[in-house]
Amino acid sequence: xxxxxxxxxxxxxxxxxxxxxxxxxxxxxxxxxxxxxxxxxxxxxxxxxxxxxxxxxxxxxxxxxxxxxxxxxxxxxxxxxxxxxxxxxxxxxxxxxxxxxxxxxxxxxxxxxxxxxxxxxxxxxxxxxxxxxxxxxxxxxxxxxxxxxxxxxxxxxxxxxxxxxxxxxxxxxxxxxxxxxxxxxxxxxxxxxxxxxxxxxxxxxxxxxxxxxxxxxxxxxxxxxxxxxxxxxxx
Length: 235
Fold this sequence. Notes:
This protein is of the alpha/beta class. It has four helices and 16 strands.
């Protein structure tokens, strides 16, 4: 299994020298008419910059649903995405974009390559980053998948937190790590009582076997819990 370092809704793979985050949904604030205290773009950029300052990866992989809107991309969204790319380059990292189901207009505002999947070499382990909304080809070579799409959260003692879900052998015998949404504007889905069919991602084939991981940045702790099938009985 590759080494995963969890922080603020993102994961660092030290052997691959890469940071991965999913579901930025740039433009969500405009679409939902929500006023975010720091401004959507400033919040995303500030948190991304803090992660890059901590680990100095050479690549940042945005794992799909980079944009929120299907029908148009506003000037503000265009500038926000450009700002995120600038943050990466300012910190010496190459931004890499993987398309999600929301990214139908991404080519209008991203002049680089847009990937369906992006492979990382994590110390001999082939980690494939996908958005997670559709199944990969059967002949795809992967030791582990890192995906987003479902925006998982978990309710513990009445407090709802974004969570990562790790499933050993979850998809065609391959491990899967599902990330929470990087944007804090997405409400997310509470996984406590969810069964396999309740997830939208084909990468979830046995919800009971998914192991929640919760990052408590205030306490500087990463909390790893038993599989959902066992853990939900304790909640």
